[in-house]
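#lab-general

N.A. 3:47 PM
ok so I finally got the sequence cleaned up, no stray characters, all 159 residues accounted for. can someone with queue access submit it? mine expired

B.Y. 3:52 PM
send it over

N.A. 3:53 PM
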Amino acid sequence: MAAASYDQLLKQVEALKMENSNLRQELEDNSNHLTKLETEASNMKEVLKQLQGSIEDEAMASSGQIDLLERLKELNLDSSNFPGVKLRSKMSLRSYGSREGSVSSRSGECSPVPMGSFPRRGFVNGSRESTGYLEELEKERSLLLADLDKEKKKKKKKK
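B.Y. 4:20 PM
back already:
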């Protein structure tokens, strides 16, 4: 009986060693998986921060566009007063601003844009560029108004 119980204990020890080895391997696998999940979570947090920054940038750009449109309305720019001014959709403006960043705009909205003027800049990427674009529009408006005044003076002189 002693030999049988010794063999039985030996088998139990071997089974426990095997189970211990399997549990260690499972623990290592779980640890590796946890590390991988932590890395993915960290990467996702970084992506979320970048997306939040992009959303904030777009919100600021949108705010700049709204300010620009309000200032244009205040200036009372009517394209019918200026023969060189045509309406161009924001979709066509997107290509000008796309070199500097992404834009989310609704197609079909129109803004006054002089044909052949300012092709290198759109008011799509922040208030600095919006202000610059507005200043260029104001200069163009001043030039057009000056031309109109000159034409009126010439017509008066001819009469």
